[in-house]
Amino acid sequence: MPHDDPDHPHALLPPDPALRVKALETILTRKGLIDPAALDEIIDTYQNKIGPQNGARVVARAWIDPDFRKALLADATPVVADLGFYGRQGEHIVAVENTPDLHNMVVCTLCSCYPWPLLGIPPGWYKSDAYRARAAREPRKVLAEFGVTLPSETAVRVWDSTAEIRYLVLPMRPAGTEGLGEDDLAALVTRDCMIGTGLPKEPS
User: Fold this and answer.
1) Residue among 153, 132, 121 nearest 197 (CA)
2) Active site residue 193
3) Number of other residues whose CB lies within 10 A of the CB of residue 170
């Protein structure tokens, strides 16, 4: 195999993934193929501007503001755009609400369509063949594997995300959070609960 050849460039890369990334960045920079400043901007964008912290803010606001929640469920796209969450992979957002009678779950059965401005880059399992094939066919089993066991009377609805429509699950607000402000509530919202494969954290 080429990567077993000590004379092959791949053999010069360190085994640790973070070090490998840094080594590749150094090589590409020296060859003039990437601009370190542009790369830093991209990394900052995905670390601090695009990610599940955005979706968590939306969910927390919906939990404390009935008018915001109503507008979000009616037409989420302009509502989240007003908060600055829009652009590529976030053009058409639909919010679906979990209730004691209904649990929503999102999958993209064709590829990995996903609301990047709200949730960041999709996790590896979301793009996997196993999740895409099984989520629609046996959602309760998949949820159980994520540690989510629902009452038998709670129906599960699976939404198929597409290039035209991407979904955000509005999870149920945890009990005991009545006195919490928006920032504290947002800290309870996980990426997985906005996909429907998890539940919000319980307040400490």
Assistant:
1) 132
2) no
3) 24
Distance (Å, whole) CA 9 – CA 31 = 15
Arithmetic mean of pLDDT over the chain = 87
For residue 124, pLDDT beyond 70: yes
CA distance 157 to 139: 8
Please report the pLDDT score of residue 130 as a whole number.
94
pLDDT tens digits for range 19-65: 777 777 788 888 888 787 776 665 555 555 567 999 999 999 999 99
Distance CA 80, CA 130 (A): 31
DSSP state of 50: S
**If one looks up domain 50-195 in CATH, what number appears?**
3.90.330.10
**Residue 108: active-site member:** yes
Active site residue 112: yes
Return the number of other C-beta atoms located less than 10 Å from residue 154's C-beta.
13
Domain ranges of the chain: 50-195
Residue 173 identity: R
Question: What are the structure tokens assigned to 11, written together?
Answer: 């053999």
